[in-house]
Amino acid sequence: MHATLRDATPPLTRSVEDYLKAIYHLSSQGGFAATSDIAAMLQVAPPSVSGMVKRLSETGLIEHVPYRGVQLTAQGRRAALRMIRRHRILELYLTQHLGYDWDGVHAEAERLEHAVSDDLIERMASALGHPQYDPHGDPIPTASGDIEEAELVPLAEARVGTKLELRQVGTQDAPRLRYFAEQGLTPGVLLMVSERQPFNGPTTIALVPSGDPRVVGRELAQLLLCQEIGS
Amino acid sequence: MHATLRDATPPLTRSVEDYLKAIYHLSSQGGFAATSDIAAMLQVAPPSVSGMVKRLSETGLIEHVPYRGVQLTAQGRRAALRMIRRHRILELYLTQHLGYDWDGVHAEAERLEHAVSDDLIERMASALGHPQYDPHGDPIPTASGDIEEAELVPLAEARVGTKLELRQVGTQDAPRLRYFAEQGLTPGVLLMVSERQPFNGPTTIALVPSGDPRVVGRELAQLLLCQEIGS
DNA sequence: TCTGCAGATTAGTATAGTCTAATCCGCACC
DNA sequence: GGTGCGGATTAGACTATACTAATCTGCAGA
Asked: How far from A105 is each of A59, A125, A174, A185, B200, CA to CA, in Å?
């Protein structure tokens, strides 16, 4: 009986894995993922999403409230986190061991995450010393499916005068990532918020300890996720 | 015009890549690959092969002579060699950099070869120092599609008294590979053929320079591909 | 309360791949 | 030179995924 239930897990297809990841990301900050948002994220037409949603909810990976959206079940969440672990370990491995830049790894990891075995992922993880963060600062879920939930503040919303550590860069867009790298804005960097212009204006910061100033427009400042530093 | 021709190459699917590789291997020593052999190699039913063969010959990747078999066109051969290059570089990378054994890499490479980019393969190739052979001694095709065609003799057919270098091990079967490794029979090893029993009997060899003897049955001796050493 | 629009779903079609069952073809043997 | 058997092919069906076009629903605004 139990055996039947546990064994009867057919391997997920590539598409299913992509849908689960998308739903995870879209519903991570609470609530439901909307059909049209999933469609946009996966670059498919909305009816394709409706079709897949039906299948996924039949197999118990998601919960579907018609005309409202979907949420992952515990099982679906586990599967999504497994993919995210793979993705982030791959990104880190490719940058650390094969000379990829942080703006170029995403696409490669996107394809590999479906093909690698768990064994290979764990070998990469050990080769990397069981890292906790990927090159963009995103937390890597553990093999058992736990993920760090940090309380981070977008630079765009940080109070003037606070000292911050840049922890995550919330985009995979290559040109933006290249620009951040040029500006020295990579995870781990410390900075002071010097001032902010009103009406969604730019934020001015000073890098610590160099003191170099940087002016960051609203759109980009929204992507720089920071943690306030005590002291 | 040229542009149209060159651009109009849609990416090959996973299945198509597998069929091309199988056909390459089956027709490498001349002639046609038979439907049933392709089916056996890919673990699909013969009618599936007939269907795929039709599509592949329509797209110009193979040449089909009904009831006879198929052969690769120049284009199909190029695509097959590209996959074989990927496979062999992956196998070598996994053994050299991620601690895989030569008997365990095949399955992993088999899945990854469809997912990696050309860029990643070339990065792995440089990390490996642009190697010429994979862990089993199989030659790695160049990026431009050339492959070494060595004249190798199976140990089972080598003349008694000759000195040989073991160059390739012609199997991916894990238990056999493990056994060869235990016996010290890996590519690069030198040996003398000491004697052979009649009626498809075993071949006795002496490892060089240690002189250690080994008795190798016909079936395995057929898999050990050697090159005669001058002097 | 009605109405309309945006977003979601259903209906119907297409493609790539697979399968089983039925049929066909070519060659080896008598 | 016929005949049969084994391998190859065709016929027909199924699954997963995608699409477009048509329809439905729920809520926001009049």
From this structure: 32, 16, 9, 18, 54
